[in-house]
């Protein structure tokens, strides 16, 4: 694999952090709106789309991300601006499948799959909360503006992450992050959310 492809692959898979169903009743003419839980931590079905910028010590890369959670299943994909798929990670029935560079990798643990594929340890379980502006419970140096989190630090087994929120927007009954910066040694990720959907 060429050096550029290797860097792009490794950094892109970092997003699976960024980054790693609903019931609706139909009547004769329309679908009844789903009642959303007041506590956003209980929200188990959602879709978020947006742009991502990845900066390393040697490369600047950008593209689109798509992240959908349907109760116990998750799909995350990363694409170039011209629509070429870079990678797709799906988790269903406790099995995670990563499709990248024409190859397929599987593991019972999404975190272990990423670690085994890239050598990087990511707080995947925390990211589902962070993308919604919520804390998992082990974050440090938390700064808030009212009820909204501005930034915090998180130290995993091998890496320390700093997460900063610079923009929130009302989406249905929730106030959700629209601009998030995640930083670890040698890598910066910027997620610019274009829209949220609730199934």
TrEMBL record:
Belongs to the LolB family. SUPFAM superfamilies: Prokaryotic lipoproteins and lipoprotein localization factors. It is found in: Cell outer membrane. The keyword Signal applies. Its main location: membrane. Keywords: Cell outer membrane, Chaperone, Lipoprotein, Membrane, Palmitate, Protein transport, Signal, Transport. The keyword Secreted does not apply. Monomer. Residues 1-24 form the signal peptide. It is a lipid-anchor. It comes from the Bacteria. InterPro entries: LolA/LolB/LppX (IPR029046), OM_lipoprot_LolB (IPR004565). This is Outer-membrane lipoprotein LolB.
